[in-house]
Structures are given as C-alpha cells and as structure tokens.
What we know:
It is built from 17 helices and 10 strands. The chain has a domain at 68-284 and 348-401: CATH 1.10.630.10. The chain is globular, with a radius of gyration of 21 Å. By secondary structure, the protein is an alpha+beta fold. The chain starts with 8 loop residues before the first helix and ends with a strand. The protein has a 5-stranded mixed sheet, sandwiched between helices.
Amino acid sequence: MTAFDPWDPAFLADPYPAYAALRAQGRVLYYEPTDQWLVPHHADVSALLRDRRLGRTYTHRYTHEEFGRTPPDPAHEPFHTLNDHGMLDLEAPDHTRIRRLVSKAFTPRTVERLQPYVDGLAGDLVDRLVANGGGDLLTDVAEPLPVAVIAEMLGIPESDRAPLRPWSADICGMYELNPSEETATRAVRASVEFTAYLRDLIAARRKEPGDDLISGLIAAHDEDDDRLTEQEMISTCVLLLNAGHEATVNSTVNGWLALFRNPDQLAALRADHSLVPTAVEELMRYDTPLQLFERWVLDDIEIDGTTVPRGAEIAMLFGSANHDETVFTDPTRLDLTRRDNPHISFSAGIHYCIGAPLARIELAASMRALLERAPGLELAAEPERKPNFVIRGLEGLPVRLG
C-alpha cells in the first residue's frame, strides 16, 4: 500500500504505476488514512457500480447512528443540502424520479440538435487562440466551451456566467479525500451563493418561461405527478453544471497533454481526423478525469473472500480499472486506434453519466477545431498539475502555434 498516496505530488503526477501495484496485491484493500476499501480491478469496479447492496447514500435506509457514522458538521449544512438533493447522491425511488424528468433534456435527438452550436463555439474559441498566437488551452478553450453549453441549456444569461466555474470548483473540492475545513468553508459559501442565484432565476423563469431546461424543470415541478421540489430543482441545476463541465474540462487538458507527450499518436491524429471518435475514448481511458468514485456498503458484501461490512465505504478506482491489463492490451500505451475500449470513465449502472453523449460531442468538437485551425499546436511550457486526486486536472496548459 505504500505506493498509493493520494497526497504525494509524485503519485499525483503519475498514479498508474501505483495502481498496477495495487492490482497485484489483491482485489480489495483497506486503506486506513481514508477509512476506505480500495477496489482497483476493472471487473470488480464494473460489477460494484451495478450492485444494489451499495449506495451513494445510506440515509434512505439508515440514520447516521444506525449506520455507525458521525452526522455531518451542522456548519456545513448548506453544502450537504445542495449536494444531497441531486440525483448523483440519491438512490431509488428519488433518483429514478429525478433522472426520468432530467433525461428528457438529454435524449439523443436533443443532444444532436446542440451539435451546430457546440461546433460553432469551439471554432470561435480556437480562432481566438490562434489569433493570439497561443495561450492557455485550459482557460481559452477547455473551460469556456462546456460551461457555455450547459449554461445555454439551463438558460443562464451570458452576463451571469462568470461565477459558475469558481462556484463549481469550490463545491467540487468537497469530493476530494479528507477535505480540509478551509475547503469546506469555501464549499459552503459557494453553495449559499449558487443556491440564492438559482432561486432568483427560477422565480424569474416561473414568471416568464423560456425554452430552456430550467423552465422545463419548473413545468415538471408544477404539473407532473413526479414533480421536483424546488430544492431538487436547484440541486439538479448545480449538478448538471458541475458534472456537465468538470469532466470535459479535465479530459480536454489531460488529453492534449497526453498527445503532446506521445508525438507519434498526435502525428497520426493530425494525419487522419477520422480517428477523433476513438481518440476521445482512448484519452478518457488513458488519463481518467475522475479517478475515484465512492459507495456506501448498505449490506455486507464479500469480495475475493474478504467481507466488507455494512457501514463501510468502498472507493472504486476508475483510473486503475481503466489500466487493468486483463481488460486492455498494453494499457500504459496511448493507442488512438484502440477499438476494444470498455473504459468506465462515465461510470456505470443507474448513476451512469446522463451527459455522456453531450460530453463526447464537446470533446470531439474542440479536438476537431484544434486539429483543423491550429495544426501546429505545441506545448509552450511544462504544466502544473492540480494538487487533487479524485478530480484529476491541470492548473493550466500553456500552448503556442508551431
């Protein structure tokens, strides 16, 4: 277990050798610093994501005391209220009800209709990058594209979008392992501000509905038998914004850094743009944007002869599963032509990412725009990696035109 240290900068720079060591050690390993059971193998992670003996929450079945857990700090209540009413942290029947309503906005036809808007925005952002002779791929292209798309879907006016990314970053800090009190304070403040903003926006849309997702959720709230509460509406909007861009932003910069470090693969992609769809999938596998996903053990389970008791927390290591040598041929090699690629970067089971089709469109659009309009793009300086483990990304990605 000494190889696994999610606070060590060397580990954060490249966790994949440590994952290989974990997989060699066993199928489930207790990690005392976080009081979690680590699951590093693809088959186990895939199965457990679908196992109803596990849950994103336990409060639908147990009190904190019954489950052997300490209740959350009352000072953090605004974060937990916001987080706990979103479908990512709910189980059936609430999860089923909310997902059914939200999924109407993410049908293949709806997402397909967004393609021209996404392509046009990606082209504009890359044109601006080219006109400047380069810049920061993170802030100039990777961030503004998915934030604008999900904000457009929700109906958030362009003039109101500046705080969205900072709010998201502060809230998502709570998903890291053992977050500090400073992180919690930022998350609480962002939760309060984001909630207040959305409550006002919902009130405005109730008076003057549009054709946006918030207006659609209000209609469901007011008319549907499976209606959303206002808190569920607010939590759903925050979840869609956060989940709707965090993975895409980090996939973009992690992916381009991997391409710069594998010039043969970048050359092949530049020579054949038809590789873009498989390149998107391979880059999400190769350097996974969400490294870990947690589940509570609602009933005792057994993994490879080890009983993991009710009340325990399992940490499914997506990054490790995506490099499992029993599933992926030569997993440490970046191969943009990889066809057999059952990566689990979008999760699986009832919590499979509802926005996966949209994320794929965004990633492909920005990649095509960069290949076509900035064919000589190159790394301008070595980037700095964020000191995060769960959500894996960069502080920035400086690029120039070659």
